[in-house]
Write a structure and sequence with these properties.
This protein is an alpha+beta fold. Helix content is 14%, strand content 22%. The strands form four sheets. A six-stranded antiparallel beta barrel has the order 4-5-6-9-8-7. A hairpin with a 7-residue loop joins strand 1 and strand 2. The radius of gyration is 19 Å and the shape is globular. The two termini are 34 Å apart. The relative contact order is 0.23.
């Protein structure tokens, strides 16, 4: 789906979006044993930490971070679009994501998945019956405190996706990690990292209609602040193969963000919102999962992206190619914009855990599919967590 161009193989590329890129250590190994790149704080960049060596690579692209913050980020020349995992940079531009810009972030059409996708490839269960998305209870901080929206800029304008606060074993109770879809941070094989990526937990906490959000104060739309992604990582598979249609790269369409507040409060994201989900990298096989609940902010019609919704269903299996991991699939009428939203089920200990995220869906909403998290996802998660010990 395109970021809200969402749910499809790429579902979010923009709204659903795409920017991540395996910022990890190895050549083709997301995560690995390599040590995280040492970072140094550069003066005049709001304390944003730039990995050693990146400043010179940015210069090769003609990028000056001060000019970038002044508007140079709007230059989307193909040769200047940062693509490689280690080239991720996202300096804070204070006030950029004001309430009106957040409200008006583009709601792209969801890329269409071939209706025959999965047939005779690997293991695919019958298409699930549609499950009508239900509005999450308000205030969201009470019912879905881990959920929020990811905003980012792409060549076609501002985009939106959904995301989830997850626990960080390196910082118990004080996580600054957010889980979303790869297409919400990186454009895949045809592009690079998206820009100005930021997470807003409990967006529009009271669930007010769009008309009431016009001109609303920032604290009403973003009551727990705007959190900028100072590091993002997605799978090498997504970067190499991901695209806006057909499901390419979807089994690896996940990303982990490390975030920092636009205006520091001294508290972590987890402390600020009061909750975070553990991530389950060894979830039960599909037939053993009793039920999954997906949460997101669908933005394509008939939704407007301003309210959180949920779908609960027993998952089936979707295989796009015989050689790729089987995906979870559930009935759900959420549309683009829900991309990247968390899928929660009982973990190995019986407690709620994040087991997937919204990745793709058909042109006519009726079901969603998400990657089953395994070694590749765990490698990315471990790399991001370890980078900020």
């Amino acid at each position: 789906m395109r970021p809200n161009r969402p749910v499809t193989a790429i579902l979010c590329a923009a709204a659903l979006a795409l920017t991540a890129a395996a910022c990890g250590p190895g050549d083709g190994e997301a995560g690995g044993d390599a040590k995280p790149t040492v970072a140094a704080s550069l003066p005049g960049n709001d304390g944003i930490k730039i990995p050693d060596g990146l400043k010179e690579r940015l210069k090769e692209h003609g990028i000056d971070l001060e000019k970038w913050k002044g508007g140079a980020w709007k230059n989307w020349k193909k040769e200047d679009w940062l693509r490689e995992a280690g080239d991720y940079v996202n300096p804070i531009i204070e006030g950029l994501w004001d309430p009106d810009r957040m409200r008006d972030a583009e709601q792209p059409q969801q890329p269409a998945v071939d209706p025959d996708a999965g047939k005779d490839q690997g293991v695919t269960d019958p298409t699930p019956a549609p499950v009508t998305a239900r509005a999450a209870n308000t205030p969201y901080h009470t019912s879905v405190p881990q959920a929020g929206k990811v905003f980012f800029d792409g060549p076609e304008g501002s985009m939106v996706c959904s995301a989830t606060v997850v626990k960080d074993p390196a910082h118990p109770g004080k996580s600054n990690l957010v889980w979303t879809a790869g297409h919400c941070v990186h454009a895949g094989k045809s592009g690079g990292w998206y820009r100005n990526i930021a997470f807003v937990p409990s967006y529009n906490n009271a669930g007010r209609p769009a008309a009431q959000l016009k001109g609303a104060p920032r604290e009403q739309v973003a009551p727990y602040g705007v959190w900028w992604s100072d590091w993002a990582q997605t799978s090498d598979q997504w970067i190499a193969n991901g695209g806006p249609t057909g499901g390419a790269g979807a089994p690896y369409d996940f990303a982990v963000l490390h975030v920092t507040p636009e205006k520091g409060s001294g508290k972590s994201l987890e402390e600020t919102v009061g909750s975070a989900f553990p991530v389950e990298f060894n979830a039960p096989a599909v037939p053993k999962v009793a039920g999954i609940t997906a949460t997101g902010y669908p933005a394509a019609a008939p939704f407007d992206g301003q309210k959180a919704y949920q779908c609960a269903d027993r998952p089936g299996r979707l295989s796009l190619t015989a050689n790729d991991p089987v995906m979870y699939r559930i009935g759900c009428t959420m549309t683009g914009g829900s991309s990247g939203g968390g899928w929660v089920a009982a973990g190995a200990d019986g407690k709620p855990a994040l087991v997937s995220n919204t990745s793709i869906g058909p042109a006519k909403a009726g079901w969603l599919a998400g990657p089953r998290l395994g070694p590749e996802a765990q490698g990315i998660f471990t790399a991001v967590s370890g980078k900020f010990k």
